[in-house]
Amino acid sequence: VEKMAAVQVAGSLPCGLPREAPREPTPEQDNGFWRLSARLCALRPDDSSSARTEIHLLFDQLISENFSEGSGVAPEGVSALLVQACRLVPLNQNHLVSKVSQLIHHLLNRLQVIVDEQNLDFLLPYTISAIQQCSSWTHMEILQAMAALVYCNGSKCQKYLPDLLGKTGILTKLSDLAQSDLEVRRAAVHCMANLCLSVPGQPYLEEPYQNICFQAFLTTLQSLKSSDMDDVTFCMLLQNALKGIQSLLNGGKMKLTQTDKLGALLAVLKKSMFHGLPGLNIEMPMVLYPAPLPQYDGRPLVKPQPPESGTFRPTLNKKKKSRIKPKKIQQGEEEEKESSGEIEAAPVTGTGRANTHEGNTWCSSSLSVQSLPLDGSGPAGKDGVSLPFSSSSWKRVSSSESDYSDAEGGVQSKMSYERSYQAKVRQGALACFLSTVKSIEKKVLYGYWSAFVPNTPELGSPQSVSLMTLTLKDPSPKTRACALQVLSAILEGSKQFLSVAEDTSDHRRAFTPFSVMIASSIRELHRCLLLALVAESSSQILTQIIKCLANLVSNAPYNRLKLSLLTKVWNHIKPYIRHKDVNVRVSSLTLLGAIVSTHAPLPEVQLLLQQPCSSGLSNSNSATPHLSTPDWWKKAPAGPSLEEASVSSPKGSSEPCWLIRLCISTVVLPREDSCSGGDAGSAAGVTYEPSPMRLEALQVLAHLARGYFSMAQVYLMELGELICKCMGEADPSIQLHGTKLLEELGTGLIQQYKSDSTIPPDQRVPVFLVVMFWTMLLNGPLPRALQNSEHPTLQASACDALSSILPEAFSNLPNDRQILCITMLLGLNDSKNCSVKAATSRALGVYVLFPCLRQDVIFVADTANAILMSLQDKSLNVRAKAAWSLGNLTDTLIANMETPDPSFQEEFSGLLLLKMLRSAIEASKDKDKIKSNAVRALGNLLHFLQPSHIEKPRFAEIIEESIQALISTILTEAAMKVRWNACYAMGNVFKNPALPLGTSPWTSQAYNALTSVVTSCKNFKVRIRSAAALSIPGKREQYGSVDQYVQIWNALVTALQKSEDTTDFLEFKYCASLRTQICQALIHLLSLASASDLPGIRRRLELNRNMVQSYILQFLKSGTQGDDTRGPHSPQERDHMVKVALKHISSVQAVAGDTSKRAIVGFLQETLTIYFDSSESQVALLELKNR
């Protein structure tokens, strides 16, 4: 039996628990080591028999000492002792070499020492030479010593890699399938795996050596167990190979880009995942390939084996719970224990399980579920794999992987002994699979979806084996937890892949579409996970199942699936909300939150929320124990504020939404004694639900406010009181979630009052009630949260919440509350914290659009100064928010221009306008996130400038710079949103009649930029916007010279000609809108043309007459209008435009002898004639049909 080095990462044990504090070294241990060390160091190399005997005795004494970490022995002393020991042992003494190898393994393992580089440079060559020169019977002990030496020392072994991993390297040969001694082969694979371990900050194995190791591990996993092999040794061989691959994937960031390489790995992982699973023996192909259907996994019939000791499987119809005392367990196994010290076996359905499954040393079952995170975070090992996949799980605690002694004297059967190692293989395979999932792209991973995720079997066909097979049938709780973690990792981020699923209609075809197959897989996942939920009794695994369900619910496209899936999940999970384990309760709320946030609002969820509060609890079975009475959450009294506000509940329902009532109760009511865990409240003697439970309840309320506001609004005032309570608590996280809920409620109220809202006015929350809601909060703890500089995240969230106030409600707030809001926001703009400053800038950008504030010159000026200051901030996020707010502020300036009262324009400071223009010019050179709003602001500011400003010399230079900034942005290869905004801004510039458009030098540059974009930009929305800008000037002189005018005309015709030229399929949907906008611009130009322009127009019409006429006829007939360019919509408006252009051209006094006028008039008349003839024939045809 091999004794293997077990050097642990400091602070973690194989089960992920914190290591005990170092014990005080006992004088006997300390003195014993140094006494023996001194005797060893006093010896000199001597080949005499007596000297060898003395060395043997010293080695035996050192090996027999029970040293342990924390015994006060310095690592340097251990390394020095080992070097001295090797110096005393010549390589021709096989027995002594074997003994010194055992000593190296024993001391490094027991004292958990990683050898320093200087001593490694002596010890590692010694072991390499020993293998090369000593008899083969010593090889296993030497390889054990070598594994201990190279552990976490891979980066220091680079110069020895050719001897170890080269073509004729020691490890390469000894790990080969040709190696007849399985123990030696296993030790070589283990040594190779230790070489692959990564150390943060240290260089990793070079790629050629990575590939050699990967192939060796893969070959080992593909090998078959021969009849003469020991089961335990073979399991340990597989474990070491799996550990090696996991290290390559985690530390070496190995890229599995080749399909065959990835397919071969997935094939052996799938086979290893089911290694030794009772009742199952699958045969896998050598390589798995991406395929929509499950690939062959042959399953020869296996005779059912008798139940093993330590495994309890209750019968299906058993009613009573049975109490089973924990059996004595051996070092290699663990059992699930409840906190009471007894194990409760609950009746189950299907593949039932009780808590007495066989276990293993992967991690303690008593860990809280926080140590089993789905995302790989938490107190995991150094490779960042979450429990039970902690990297420390691979490391040894005892001096031997195979030490299997019963400390309490019990005797385990050989079968149980083997089963525990088989379970470790399955867990190792799942850990390796999890690393594989995280190291490859999702789009590659989902090609193998059918190999690992269940699908509904065809009639008469067996169910394909998958991760759910392990979840439902594996007797080891740790393996079930591992399988669920892998499934969660696969489901995470699967929304795009699963979005193709569709089964709302019956498919009666000769083939099954891929969308139906994915939908079938989603249904089967629901079925299996709900089966697992009912069958499971371990709280830790229950939590994993529920979290896995939450991941599935978050990513499945329920709007494309048949109803009832969510209803089944909903009804199954409701009883677990009062489970005795707090982690199960928290994950149950997480799942409910996922249901109410997925594709909200869903009609199915709407109906579920309206169910009576006791619905779904009556069919709770004995597999979900520890429940209170079904109506336990009715104890939370509804606040009187609802009646005062005369908001009535739906008829026939005492509680409009039981889930909201549940969440409110969870947050505000004292904890019931029947539940575990709890937080002390602010009031003496009051204990609330544990903080994670209350936080999750607040998140569910926020989801409901976002997706199902019509239900949340019934509880508006009560939720306001809840928010006040949360923000008044000492826990910053509770305060923060309270403000997040406030923001969601505020946003929901704003959505109700938007101009495009479909909610009837009588179903909206009355404005007076919204005013009451915000007054309560502003008189309560919200101002304190805004001033809480110790918690900047809370301050920022409070700013976001304050910006979600309904404008109509703000204007009705008491005057002192309005002033409070404005004063606090302006004050917080000076905050040193970036997130607070960004949130404040955004909030000011919202307030400046409020109708009751936008004509307040002083407020707008103060806001402008605050925003300009934030635009200079070092933080990109602050500058981005400030630029957005500057754009909003300039929108306000334009809105004020449209009011009949000119006082705002007259009173607004010209000096401040200059500052705003300068800041916007600088911001237009910043990152794209800032640039898009900066150019928007520039266009608005140039539009806003009054003649009194433009006449001043100091404005001339800044106007020129501003327009040059816009031109530069239009022509640059920036993000399309930036260029779109720049074209829009240029159109705004053209709207200012006071600017010298047409006479100033920048006129031609501006038009050239727009014509360049309209003919060549890849993005059609940008082309549409540039064509719209070209049709804005209202006078002929604003288009400049004849050459400039004709150039614009020719560019628009060219753009019309190229309106279908695109290689991007997504742009085709904008083709019609682009043609409409160009036709509108061409007709607009004709309606302003002068006599000298006509020859240029005629020349281009002669070249493209039919093309232009066909598109203008399309414009007249359909007028497809896109991109909101404010063009004419009705047929009368469109043909009126052409008539106006015809009338204008007819009235132009043409130069004598020039036929251009007649040609253009003829073109327009012919176009109108064709259009009216077509329209009249359609009308006549319609009348004929009606008759």
Folded structure, characterized:
- Keywords: Phosphoprotein, Repeat.
- Pfam families: DUF4042.
- It is a single chain.
- The chain is built from 50 helices and four strands.
- The protein has a two-stranded antiparallel sheet with strand order 1-2. Strands 3-4 form a two-stranded antiparallel ribbon.
- The longest helix has 31 residues.
- The N terminus is likely disordered.
Beta strand %: under 5%
How are the strands of the largest sheet arranged?
1-2
**Roughly how much helix do the residues carry, as a percent range?**
55-70%
Low-confidence stretches: 1-29, 301-411, 615-653, 680-684, 1120-1126
Overall geometry comes to elongated
Q: What is this structure's SSE topology?
A:
Elements: H1 27-42, H2 49-64, H3 75-88, H4 94-110, H5 117-133, H6 139-150, H7 161-165, H8 170-174, H9 182-195, H10 207-222, H11 231-250, H12 259-273, E1 322-324, E2 343-345, H13 414-439, H14 442-445, H15 449-452, H16 467-473, H17 477-491, H18 495-498, H19 514-535, H20 539-555, H21 565-573, H22 582-597, H23 603-609, H24 641-644, H25 658-668, E3 679-680, E4 687-688, H26 691-707, H27 709-712, H28 716-727, H29 732-752, H30 767-778, H31 782-786, H32 792-802, H33 807-810, H34 815-828, H35 834-847, H36 857-870, H37 876-897, H38 903-907, H39 910-923, H40 928-944, H41 947-950, H42 953-971, H43 976-990, H44 1002-1016, H45 1020-1030, H46 1042-1057, H47 1071-1086, H48 1094-1117, H49 1131-1147, H50 1156-1186
Antiparallel strand pairs: 1-2, 3-4
